[in-house]
Amino acid sequence: MKIANGAVMATFVLLAAMPAAQAAARLKLTIQTQHAPKAGSRNVPADDTRQVDAVLDADHISAAWARRTTVYDFQRRRRLVLDDAERSYVDYSLYDVVGSRSAELAHRQKMAGAMGAAGLQDALPSLLDEMHVLAVARAGQPAPVESAGGTAWSDAGGKPLARRGEVLLEAGPDDVRAYAQLLRYMVGGHPKILAALARGKGIPQQLVFTFRHTWGERTSTVTVSQLQALTQAPGYELSGWNARSPAGAGALDELLDRAAALDAPTIQAQRERVAGEADAAWSEGRVFQAFLGSMEGYLMTGGKPPRPFTPRQLEQVRAEPSVRLLNGILSARTQEQYAQAVGMFAPLRVPAGPKAYVLQVFEANDRIQLGEVGRAVPMFAEVLRANPALAGVYKDLGDALFLQFDGVRAWRSWDAGRRIAPAFENFRKVDEFETRLAQDFPEYF
Known about the structure:
By secondary structure, the chain is of the alpha+beta class. The protein has helices spanning 6-16, 95-117, 127-134, 173-186, 191-198, 251-261, 264-283, 287-301, 311-319, 321-329, 335-342, 346-352, 356-369, 373-386, 391-403, 407-420, 428-440, and strands at 24-37, 48-56, 60-65, 68-73, 78-83, 88-93, 146-148, 152-154, 160-164, 168-169, 203-204, 206-213, 216-230, 242-243.
């Protein structure tokens, strides 16, 4: 194979003389993406070329391009995105990638079933193509990948999925596996293809992936121009870097940035403020506001209120008309009842006074039951601006965002809530979801 750059060739020759086992590797690669839309297709992405400087290690992989560096930290299961110009970073969950992709695959399968029932299945990519794009596959979902000598892969009908060039750059098995992992996160590829690449005898100098979408075909060509063995991977540290300023992001990201910046004294101060407001409401005879303050306290910790109702307070709560009305609203279980419930919060806002935002938590959840997720998300955000230490509301916001296929922000919201109240029972389902993801898709970790 002809290589125009003599310096690059010299690098390859030097590497060939090195021991096969490598602790880590640094490489430069180009990812060129081209799109071939079908006639009449709209919203087709623009062609793109990325020059990437990557470091491969068993514990973490970093990839830098366009003045940003992404670090995939497999030990902490975090994904950090660093803005090299601003010297700032955002700390994301590594689960958000596979969580989003697996949910998207399930959604596309559901859509394919509906389209198939309508006789329109030919308008959609095959299940295998969807797995190839998303780099996920579930057990029990047959989608055969045909291999031609370990250098080319296609579907059962012969349509190409991927092919590699003849030149393999010498690298140790750990680095070969790490390179396949980099492709999984940055490019895609069916898990069977990526697994074959991870078992390879070296790193392909060139790989070509073919992806099929509803709008047409996408080709990603990955070319390695330099590969350097490292005796030890350069670790990463964040000293001298700052968490992204909340003022530098969009409205929802700003809220999540502020949540990530909350420290223990601030959280405790919020809890004490809410408890003090409830005490004042009791002493002034504002029973409904005191009741909402108690519910707010629960949403902050998930535990018992620091000051449980006295027998006298419990008697007042049971006699309070607004509490009885709210209990009736919260008993909704059917679509018809939810539709009625969302119209019944308005008269409660007056007696709720400054605690009206607590009512909004319940209304937003009812709107989710009605399929009005787009209305619920800004309602949750408004509540969290009023009290940014409401751990339970971050759980609700994360759930709503995940329903919108916004896994990145969903996990940021869930992480914020778990950091505020680690023992909150509501987050058990998130913990269990992460456990299932790690079991079903171990290759991502």
